[in-house]
């Protein structure tokens, strides 16, 4: 899908979270890196309208993300803490919840839930309680819930944060195998090493927009 920032910026009172920014993104694999508080999550939240720009606008396939009428669905978002986005206690019910209100029959919803669980080898998680899952299992459950809704773009905010080496590897492979357009915010620089394009934010500004090696070099300079 085509993501377009047109002078889009965000301020909270006098604090500038994101300097006005103009750019277009259509690549399939995008990485976003930068220090804590540099504006990465703010940038990502503009793409699905969770945050509205205080100047300019953001368009996804020509639709203004601040416009309520354009509705959710096109952009899936996995939060920095996925436990915050699980709504229902049982994994299967949580996945089904996201599919309600779309005019699907119960049988169609059940089939979609089974299909997404199978896609991620996660059938064994279907009847588990989300709050009992390990960090890696929870990431997988959150991916299932979001991808069941067929988003055109998937945004993952620090998906390997808090994961051990094995779960990190598992989640990295899941992300690498996704056919959806994917935007990954991360402090895990290896994760973005094969991406098409990496954006570096610093103090609310986009300071590099490059291939991974160049972007990481710039980030290391900033981190000093
Ligand atoms: N709702 C808000 N109200 C006030 N300030 C905010 C709000 N959201 C973000 N900020 C500020 O905007 C700046 C950018 O925050 P943002 O969450 O985008 O950073 P980040 O790059 O995602 O950081 P991290 O790596 O720590 O997740 C920070 O200074 C933050 O304190
Ligand atoms: Mg963040």
Brief digest:
The protein has 224 residues and is of the alpha/beta class.
Q: What is the averaged pLDDT score?
A: 93
The beta-strand count equals: 10
Which strands sit side by side, in order, in the main sheet? 6-7-8-3-9-10
List the domain count as a whole number. Answer: 2
Rg over C-alpha atoms, rounded to the nearest angstrom: 18 Å
Biggest sheet: strands, sense, closure? 6 strands, mixed
Bound molecules: adenosine-5'-triphosphate, magnesium ion
Helix content: 25-40%
Total helical segments: 6
CATH homologous superfamily designation of the largest domain = P-loop containing nucleotide triphosphate hydrolases
Intertermini distance? 35 Å
Beta-strand residue fraction = 25-35%
Q: Which term fits the overall shape? A: globular
**Which CATH-level-2 architecture of the largest domain?**
3-Layer(aba) Sandwich
Q: How would you classify the helix and strand content by structural class?
A: alpha/beta
Low-confidence stretches: none
SSE string: EEEHEEEHHHEHEEEH
CATH topology of the largest domain: Rossmann fold
Instruction: Using the coordinates above, name the CATH class of the largest domain.
Output: Alpha Beta
Descriptive account of the structure:
This protein is α/β, with parallel strands linked by helices and 224 residues long. The chain has 2 domains: 1-74 and 154-224, 3-Layer(aba) Sandwich (Rossmann fold); 82-150, no CATH class. The chain contains 6 helices and 10 strands, in the order E-E-E-H-E-E-E-H-H-H-E-H-E-E-E-H. Helix 2 (91-97) packs parallel to helix 4 and helix 4 (135-147) runs parallel beside helix 5 (165-177). The structure holds adenosine-5'-triphosphate and magnesium ion.
